[in-house]
Amino acid sequence: MQNIQLEVFNKEFVDQIEPTFNISFDDISKAFKKIFEDTPLEKINIVFVTSEYIQQLNKQYRNIEAPTDVLSFKISEDMKESEIYICPEYVYESFKEDSFEEEILRLIVHGTLHILGYDHKESLNDSPNEDMFVLQEELLLKFKKLCL
């Protein structure tokens, strides 16, 4: 079992968008480390960003001129360091407060699975039975039990 280092940046963006966000980032970190303990991941940064910033990243790395909910990057090919960028504003506009907390957790899992090499062809809504989404939702249930 390896000890994954997880750092969360710009937490204030989450509070600005949804002040009732009730999950402690310490609980998120503990749950994340438990769920992904048997992976080669060593250091993950979760970075909350504005719509404008994630749109710039999306344009630069995916040639898509629009904001998105999550982008993930391997900083080193051996997965020693990776980053997940999440846009709380985009999430809130898509889900409002109804499932905002759950969606933030889902995006952390989703971004991590991409770093681990998983991919999908469609969206979760269009193709929920794709292998990556099935695993994502299984891990999300574990994540929620540990955090909520």
Notes on the protein architecture:
- The structure is a single chain.
- The protein has helices at residues 11-17, 25-35, 51-62, 88-95, 100-115, 131-147; strands at 5-9, 43-48, 70-74, 81-86.
- With 148 residues, the chain is α/β, with parallel strands linked by helices.
- It has one domain (5-147): Collagenase (Catalytic Domain) (3-Layer(aba) Sandwich), CATH 3.40.390.
- The chain has a 4-stranded mixed β-sheet with strand order 1-2-4-3, with helices on both faces.
- A hairpin with a 6-residue loop joins β3 and β4.
- α2 (25-35) crosses α6 (131-147) and α5 packs across α6.
- The model has no long low-confidence stretch (mean pLDDT 90).
Question: What's a concise summary of this model?
Answer:
With 148 residues, this protein is an alpha/beta fold. Helix content is 48%, strand content 15%.
Question: What's the topology here?
Answer:
Layout: E1 5-9, H1 11-17, H2 25-35, E2 43-48, H3 51-62, E3 70-74, E4 81-86, H4 88-95, H5 100-115, H6 131-147
Parallel strand pairs: 1-2, 2-4
Antiparallel strand pairs: 3-4
Keywords: Cytoplasm, Endonuclease, Hydrolase, Metal-binding, Nuclease, Ribosome biogenesis, rRNA processing, Zinc
Family: Belongs to the endoribonuclease YbeY family.
Cofactor: Zn(2+)
